[in-house]
Design goal:
By secondary structure, this protein is an alpha+beta fold. It folds into two domains: 80 residues, Phosphorylase Kinase, domain 1; 196 residues, Orthogonal Bundle (Transferase(Phosphotransferase), domain 1), CATH 1.10.510. 40% of the residues lie in helices and 17% in strands. The protein is built from eleven helices and eleven strands. Helix 3 runs antiparallel to helix 6. Bound molecules: adenosine-5'-triphosphate. Adenosine-5'-triphosphate binds next to strand 2, strand 3, strand 4 and strand 7. Belongs to the protein kinase superfamily. STE Ser/Thr protein kinase family. STE20 subfamily.
């Protein structure tokens, strides 16, 4: 049981009233809910601990990371607790839902340039902060970019994140790297997020990620996979760019800088944030007006999309 925000959220399920489902993932269901004592709407991610026997480490990491981070573009959990065989993570409710949901529902061909620039700029600010703290997010994607009613953007889901300052044991067990946490060694690992960031840019521009219809690769970290994927993603990008509404040279340059095979040659999140492309970004109110106005409530959209899938 952990308390993670200034306002003490209750850690008893009886203090919450679960409303409709608003999302689901591999091992969790997310509900809109009411925190009864505060009369405040929240989102609760309920993880079935029996289903995630093999990844208790990942869950602990997600909850711990969510409780320690403090940045306006990162999702911060109110509290978490176990109830029977499930873990409840109580978080602020983002009525826009994820960018993936919004695209699937209302923008199947992807977003317009200023929307993409605004979303990506906010995500990049979160990455600058995370990387500065030695964290790698490792799951940057449209499904993990949440938007609230004001157009505020939050990067969510730390289920597979890793901290470069952890002991070697955990890193060894995750089969990613072994070594002392010093920047000269660790910074190429942080740049894994830059790769995913480039793919996310394509996802937001196309409405879906390159090869999103293919089953996930088991050997995610294998250099062969990365190489094949890089070439494919770039071909996909170059051949399809004519179809995009995006004609900006700066978008192409920005994505190309992220999708470089050698992580050391990718820009840092801080450097990338200075890229010209992000000058096309607008305010959060613009986002709210452009992509949230007129959308059905999140639960309704979720239900409709579930029927389609
Ligand atoms: N705080 C929130 N407010 C509104 N919607 C949310 C919130 N948290 C999650 N969601 C919705 O629920 C979906 C699934 O949540 P989440 O990604 O945390 O589950 P997951 O099991 O980790 O998913 P995956 O394994 O696919 O990454 C999100 O894509 C989003 O649409």
């Amino acid at each position: 049981m952990e308390h993670v925000s200034e306002k003490k959220f209750p850690v008893d399920p009886k203090d919450y009233k679960l409303y409709e489902e608003i999302g689901d993932g591999v091992s969790a269901t997310v509900y809109r809910a009411l925190c009864i004592p505060y009369n405040e709407v929240v989102a609760i991610k309920v993880l079935d601990l029996e289903k995630c026997n093999n990844d208790l480490d990942g869950i602990r990491r997600e909850v711990k990371t969510m409780s320690l981070i403090n940045h306006p573009n990162l999702l911060h959990a109110h509290c978490s607790f176990t109830s029977d065989m499930s873990l409840w993570v109580v978080m602020p409710y983002f009525s826009g839902g994820s960018c993936l949901h919004i695209m699937k529902y209302a923008h199947p061909e992807g977003f317009e340039e200023p929307v993409i620039a605004t979303l990506l700029r906010e995500v990049l600010k979160a990455l600058v902060y995370l990387h500065g703290q030695g964290h790698i997010h490792r799951d940057v994607k449209a499904g993990n970019i949440l938007i609230d009613a004001n157009g505020d953007v939050k990067l969510a889901d730390f289920g597979v994140s890793a901290c470069m300052f952890d002991t070697g044991d955990r890193q060894r067990s995750r089969n990613t790297f072994v070594g002392t946490p010093c920047w000269s060694i660790t910074y190429p690992f942080l740049r894994a997020d830059i790769w995913s960031f480039g793919i996310t840019a394509l996802e937001l521009a196309h409405g879906h990620a390159p090869f999103s219809k293919h089953p996930p690769m088991k050997t995610k970290d294998s250099p062969r996979f990365i190489l094949v994927f890089e070439i494919d993603a770039r071909c996909y990008f170059l051949s399809d760019v004519v179809k995009l509404k995006i004609s900006l040279q700066s978008f192409k340059e920005m994505v190309a800088a992220c999708l470089v095979k050698d992580p050391k040659k990718r820009p840092s999140s801080e450097k990338l944030l200075k890229h010209n492309f992000f000058k096309n970004g607008r305010t959060n109110e613009y986002l709210a007006r452009t992509i949230l106005d007129g959308l059905a409530p999140l639960g309704e959209r979720f239900r409709e999309l579930k029927v389609i899938v």
